[in-house]
Amino acid sequence: MSEAAGDFDDEDGSGTIKKFMFLNRKAPYGTVYALEGLEVVLITAAFDQDVSMVFMDDGVYQLVKGQNTKAIAMKNFSPTYRALDGYDIEKLYVERDSLEMRGLSEDDLLVPVEVLSSAEMQVLMSDQDVVIAF
Amino acid sequence: MAIEINGKTYDTDEEGYLTDLSQWDEDVAKVLAAEEKVEMTDNHWEVINFLREYYNEFQIAPAVRVLTKAIGKKLGPDKGNNKYLYELFPYGPAKQACKIGGLPKPTGCI
Amino acid sequence: MLHIVNKSPFENTALASCLRVASKGGDNALLLIEDGVYAITKNSDAGKAVQAVMGGIKVYALMPDVEARGMQDRVLEGISMVDYAGFVDLVIEHNNVQSWL
């Protein structure tokens, strides 16, 4: 990757913008990964980086419409994905195979996303400076 | 910790934020505001109500940058700027207004 | 016997192992809870595996966990939904219970 020479807009490098991908692969309530990952993304948004979020495998369940956690007494954090746009996080990607295996389609998701093939996902991942997985 | 007003008890955490959002009402908001040395005006209530609506919709308290932008969108640029919001809430609009509004500390507030 | 599975069928082999064993005969029931409920999604790979054994095994799912995950409108036909009280009834009705952790 040839990121070393470019991207600096001041001398000490504090203005460097890197490409961060947050890779979400866990279902929302069975473990704490999804919620923790979302909080990290929201905090990272304050640092003006180039952030994208990817939902693969069970991570696609995080975006399913119609979640209602009243009866399990846990916080329903699915509405927070709709706030990402206001945090200037507009690049949300979902892998098509992950949806299809789970009997889901783009219409089942609560935010607009770009659905990618595995090949397109490979290209997107290779293009990142940092990939952080949850 | 807890605050008591007219015989009603409101639980708070060690930083003074309400721990049960559903306990919030205008009485406790006024007491929390007084503790923050904020004198509530219509303009203050407007921001508090905006924050509570934002929380209801998205289940998070917004970072200050996000709050400023969202207020600008809804209430106009003369309110959606740092100067206006910091005049209302000198110790940080997100932090102070969230506390008075009975919301948790904003995500991304370090 | 009552089998309980609480893990997603897409990232854990608990459901596959449970179905492999329980489908070999005997009087078996399966209760899906927590992330295990994803297994009963219509048109999903796991849903097909569950459907294949439903003739011999009665399948239940814990409704609060289904609703939490937003899957209530995507459930296979023939699955019985139970609440927490129904969960307790199932445990009492069966003389032994196995949780496939």
UniProtKB/TrEMBL annotation, chain B:
Gene3D superfamilies, per the entry: 3.30.1420.10, DsrC-like protein, C-terminal domain (1.10.10.370)
Location in the cell: Cytoplasm
One GO term describing the cellular component: cytoplasm
Molecular functions (GO terms): sulfur carrier activity; transferase activity
Signal peptide interval: none
Main location: cytoplasm
Gene Ontology biological-process entries: tRNA wobble position uridine thiolation
Entry keywords, A to Z: Cytoplasm, Transferase
Listed Pfam families: DsrC (PF04358)
SUPFAM superfamilies reported in the protein's UniProt record: DsrC, the gamma subunit of dissimilatory sulfite reductase
InterPro entries: DsrC-like_C (IPR042072), DsrC-like_dom_sf (IPR025526), DsrC-like_N (IPR043163), DsrC/TusE (IPR007453)
Entry similarity comment: Belongs to the DsrC/TusE family.
NCBIfam families: dsrC_tusE_dsvC
Record-given protein name: Sulfurtransferase DsrC
Organism for this UniProt entry: mine drainage metagenome
